[in-house]
Amino acid sequence: MRSLALTHPDRVYWPDVGLTKQGLADYYVRVWPRIAPHLIDRPIALLRCPEGINGTCFFQKHPWRGMGDEIEAFDDPGDSSDAPIIAVDDLDGLTALVQGAALEIHTWQATRADLEHPDQLVMDLDPGEGVDWQAVIDAAREIRERLEAAGLAAFVKTSGGKGLHVVAPLVPRAGWDAVKAFTDQMAHAMATEAPERYVATVAKADRKGRILIDYLRNGRNNTAVVAWGARARPGAPVSMPLAWGELGTAIGPDHFTVRNAPARLDAPDPWSEFRDAARPLPAG
């Protein structure tokens, strides 16, 4: 149960749908059993929007003045700046993020218990202008095939933005360089084999009509939006785990929102076997 009370609970964060600070906090109470396994004990970066999505927003990955005690601050031995990083361990911590106007929560691909060995990798499919949704679906399925051919399991979720995330759980043995190299090789192989469909570089000039296969979220300190997490975009969309059989044109990237996502709690969790499916990164 949440014990932390909010100040200014009626502050509107998403004016287009009338979603308030209290509404976002209540959403996270409802979906806590689903979001918790993907959030607890992971270093996080936040998109904070104190005036809501139409105001100024900024990224935050270190403690700030007035941050709630429910948010954990801890040292990162690999950060030469000596600035602490942050994480949450319970529902009150998540509520404190909402109190701090964190409208997006992005997590590392590693846990606080082992910062140097990722326990998942993420391939972020970001379509450029003119790419239809079916092409993004086809790209996700191709990545699934490639991951499974390498001996890894593949799970898919909407990004809550424009694309899809394909995520593979890992036994945390390989270091950051190895995981990034693996995803780099996959992204560039796809871009080389089908240059009319894919790019693996972030330059926007190269992306019109093609899908960016963003592997850079697999570097140390880099993050991806947490499953079930809200996005600071019109409509209050969320990043939603899907079963592969659900993937189709009827469910677009922003189909699930803070308003309708809790209905998913009545169905089985398509990611219930996520952690049990972890495998070591293939050698070489």
From TrEMBL:
InterPro entries for this protein: LigD_pol_dom, NHEJ_LigD, PaeLigD_Pol-like
Keyword Protein biosynthesis appears in the UniProt entry: no
CDD domains according to UniProt: PaeLigD_Pol_like
Keyword ATP-binding listed: no
Keyword annotations from UniProtKB, A to Z: Ligase
Gene Ontology MF term list: ligase activity
Pfam families in alphabetical order: LigD_Prim-Pol
Domain DNA ligase D polymerase: 20-271
NCBIfam families found in the cross-reference section: ligD_pol
The name this protein goes by in its record: DNA ligase D
